[in-house]
Specification:
It contains nine helices and 19 strands. With 395 residues, the protein is α/β, with parallel strands linked by helices. The protein has two domains: 283 residues, Metallo-dependent phosphatases (Purple Acid Phosphatase, chain A, domain 2), CATH 3.60.21.10; 104 residues, no CATH class. The strands form five sheets. The chain has a six-stranded mixed sheet with strand order 6-5-4-1-15-16. A six-stranded mixed sheet has the order 7-8-9-12-14-13, with no helix packed on it. A three-stranded parallel sheet has the order 17-18-19. Strand 4, helix 2 and strand 5 form a beta-alpha-beta unit. Helix 1 packs parallel to helix 2. The N and C termini lie far apart (76 Å).
Length: 395
């Protein structure tokens, strides 16, 4: 059984006001063609297929074309709702879809599998939409008492439903896959997690509930699952291995400069005979253009040192002591895709270290002190004259 795991398409999203629709169209087309040429049995989109609950019409049409092409090729399609999607809206269409196409957004579907068949028997795929704790803690509690208000508690409850369903089957060693949309990390307790490895990205929406958004990967152990296809985190990586492979495919495109070094890919998963390990393969996705984060004085940025990045999406940080004249225009003339430009003097002092005390000081002295902290230099006579004139005007 061959699965293609992808997630976080975020159709309809832009990058600093730059449309990404053409790039998304190219990447989605690549995935459809890959699924056909690789004889994929099932494609799994693990949440956040859209960037918002009511997506633009061109994004809806793009998804529809992809589903039609996959269904025509005989590929089973399973899409789950992520935290950016509207699960209820996706679930509305579930009753009118072609055979082999599954949109899962309702919590009522938790614990129910989509059954696939190969020469070794059934492979059960359990789609889990995004489990919003404030809702799922009631829906999944099983009694009058809501679950603990945490991502870990609702995910444990969902996995318990899968475990129960598998235990009740006549198949002795069923092969099973789960699809989830959550922040899962290889820790024993949520509070142990740190982002020392750069797991998160600026483009992800925070899921924090009660100060904790992490689900320990151990939640999936012992449930009879061979593979857990995750969405939400935009960097593709394996969370844990062993008998249960827990893995993120990552996002369709780079959606923030924090992802500049990410390789964007889909994951092809081959599930063999019962008892055998899954075989995993990554296939890189086409990106609209490279992405770079550059930091230097403006003359260095405009020099041939960074000629290689002139056609990249770039974030430019100018580190001159004083703001350069016509900074934005000069950078735009060299970097056609300069999406973020800022001035941060190299000798700037962090304002978080000492907020200072303005009591008993003259206002102009307070302003001059602030400027010194921000720029790292004492204001000269010309600057003080401007400050004095502005202050007198305000008075």
């Amino acid at each position: 059984m061959r699965l293609l795991h992808t997630s976080d398409w975020h159709l309809g999203r832009s990058l600093h006001s730059t449309s990404l629709h053409a790039a998304q169209e190219q990447a989605v087309g690549f995935i459809v063609d890959l699924a056909v040429t690789e004889s994929v049995d099932c494609i799994v989109i693990a949440g956040d297929v859209f960037d918002r609950a009511i997506p633009p019409i061109e994004s809806l049409r793009l998804l529809n074309r992809a589903i039609d092409a996959l269904a025509a090729a005989g590929v089973t399609v399973i899409i789950t709702a992520g935290n950016h999607d509207s699960g209820d809206r996706l679930a509305t269409y579930s009753g009118v879809l072609a055979e082999g196409v599954h949109l899962v957004g309702s919590l009522d579907a938790v614990g129910t599998s989509v059954t696939l068949e190969d020469e070794f028997g059934p492979v059960l795929v359990y789609p889990l939409p995004y489990l919003e704790p404030d809702v799922a803690r009631v829906s999944l509690s099983g009694d009058d008492e809501p679950l603990e208000r945490s991502h870990e508690a609702v995910m444990r409850a969902a996995v318990d439903l899968i475990r129960r369903d598998l235990a009740g089957l006549p198949v002795p060693t069923p092969r099973a896959v789960a699809i989830g949309h959550a922040f899962v990390a290889n820790v024993r307790r949520p509070e142990e997690w740190t982002d020392a490895g750069g797991t998160t990205s600026e483009s992800e929406r925070d899921l924090t509930v009660g100060g904790v958004q992490v689900v320990p990967a151990g939640v999936f152990e012992g449930a009879g699952l061979q593979y857990v296809a995750l969405g939400h985190l935009h960097r593709g990586h394996e969370v844990s291995g062993g008998n249960t492979i827990v893995r993120y495919s990552g996002s369709l495109l780079r959606y923030s400069f924090s992802e500049a070094a990410h390789d964007k890919h889909v994951v092809i998963v081959d599930i063999g005979a019962p008892g055998s390990a899954c075989e995993i393969r990554e296939v890189s996705l086409p990106q609209p253009r490279p992405m770079s984060r550059l930091r230097d004085p403006i003359d260095a940025l405009l020099s041939d040192t960074y000629a290689h990045a002139r056609d990249h999406f770039v974030e430019l940080v100018v580190t001159d002591d004083a703001p350069p004249e016509r900074m934005h225009a000069r950078l735009d003339a060299v970097f056609a895709y300069a999406l973020r430009k800022s001035h941060e003097p190299a000798n700037r002092v962090s304002l978080e270290r000492d907020r200072g005390d303005a009591r008993g000081k003259e206002p102009l002295d307070v302003i001059a002190d602030f400027l010194r902290k921000v720029t790292g230099a004492v204001p000269d006579d010309a600057q003080l004259a401007i400050l004095r004139a502005g202050y007198e005007e305000c008075r």
